[in-house]
Write a structure and sequence with these properties.
About 15% of the residues lie in helices and about 40% in strands. The chain contains two helices and ten strands; from the N terminus they run E-H-E-E-E-E-H-E-E-E-E-E. It has helices at about 35-45, 100-105; strands spanning about 5-10, 50-55, 60-70, 80-85, 95, 110-115, 120-125, 130-135, 145-155, 160-165.
Length: about 160
């Protein structure tokens, strides 16, 4: 197949939420199961299935992540792309960013995009590209709130890793 999709519930990318030398990872996501996550990433690196894309939810925020075997090694190749979609009906209007977003992004170069608004991800798939558009609402607490495209990312056939569209 042209695209190999792995739909699953919790974020697969390893994300350090603490700036500086401290480390704060979620034990409720794949980061808490490093051996299993690494085994899957090594499989993707060695077996090279065509165009692996991971679709994730259940986190109430939007993310685009490059997935790597070893996040500590700067030259570790990207083996897949992860698109994480927020919820559209959970409480709270969300915001474009959080107070710790800048620090979190600086600690995690594999995070290509983060957004704290509500909405959904629209995927357009062709033989040559996979495009994910992050559709967000300005407010979920006001009926008739406008929907807009906050960001779009594309994965090209044969080239793991997402690029801004």
């Amino acid at each position: 197949s042209r695209w190999n999709v792995l739909p699953q519930q919790v974020m697969m990318a390893r994300v350090d939420q603490a700036a500086g030398d401290d480390e704060l990872i979620s034990m409720d996501q794949w980061s808490g199961y490093e051996v299993a996550r690494r085994r899957l990433m090594e499989f993707l690196a060695s077996q090279r299935p065509s165009n692996p894309v991971v679709l994730t939810g259940d986190i109430h925020t939007n993310w685009v992540n490059d997935l790597r075997v070893d996040y500590a090694a700067e030259r570790s190749p990207v083996v897949a792309t992860e698109f994480v979609g927020t919820s559209i009906t959970s409480g709270g209007d969300g915001s474009d960013v959080r107070g710790n977003t800048a620090g979190m992004l600086s600690e995690n170069p594999s995070v290509r995009f983060f957004n704290n608004q509500r909405g959904y991800v629209r995927c357009a798939i062709t033989p040559g590209t996979w495009t994910s558009d992050y559709q967000v609402l300005e407010y979920v607490t006001h009926q008739g709130s406008p929907m807009s495209t906050r960001a779009s990312f594309v994965v090209e056939n044969g080239r793991p890793g997402a690029q801004p569209a």
